[in-house]
Each structure stands twice: as structure tokens, then as C-alpha cells.
Amino acid sequence: MSALKLQNLPIVSLMTFILGIVIIIFSPIWGRETAYAFLRSYYGGSMGEDFSAILQGSINSYCIIGAVLLFFGGLGSLISFIFEQQKQ
């Protein structure tokens, strides 16, 4: 890896890690808003029986995105730490 990539890796990894945490924390709120928006646009806002499934699916989608970002951010941080230790 080039020196420039290794210098930027800890910063990008930390930002990705934090973004993953934020997405996971706010996934219920964003999932609810997504489900309401879906219902408003497709069903006029009234559909009680499928709302729970749409809500849970939306929340799970945000959680998965957050978990992936959290994983890659942590992995990048670990890699940059290992490369930093090998330099010394």
C-alpha cells in the first residue's frame, strides 16, 4: 500500500465506524419514517395489517447497513493499527 493510503486509512476507518454506529442507533427512527413514507405513497396512509412488516423490514435494512459500515470501519482500524505496529 502506498504511504498516502495508509495515512488516510485510520481517518476513513474511524469515520466509517462512527457512521455505522449512528445508523444503527437511529435505525428505528429512520425505519419508521421510511415505512410511513411508503404507506403514504402507495396506500394513501391506511394499511394497518402490513405496517408492522414494512416497519420491521425498514429497521432491519438500516441495521444491516450500519452493521456493515461498523464492521468495515473496525476492520480498517485494525489493519491500520497492524501496519503501524509493523513500522515500529
Explain what you see.
With 88 residues, the chain is mainly alpha-helical. The chain has one domain. Helix content is 92%, strand content 0%. The chain has two helices and no strands. It has helices at residues 3-43, 48-87. The protein is rod-shaped and about 60 Å long. The mean pLDDT is 84.
Task: Summarize the amount of helix as a percent range.
Answer: over 70%
Work out the strand percent: under 5%
Mean pLDDT over the full residue set: 84
Strand segment count = 0
Topology:
Blueprint: H1 3-43, H2 48-87
Helix pairs in contact: 1-2
Key structural traits:
88 residues; mainly alpha; 92% helix; single chain
Structure at a glance:
With 88 residues, the chain is an all-alpha fold.
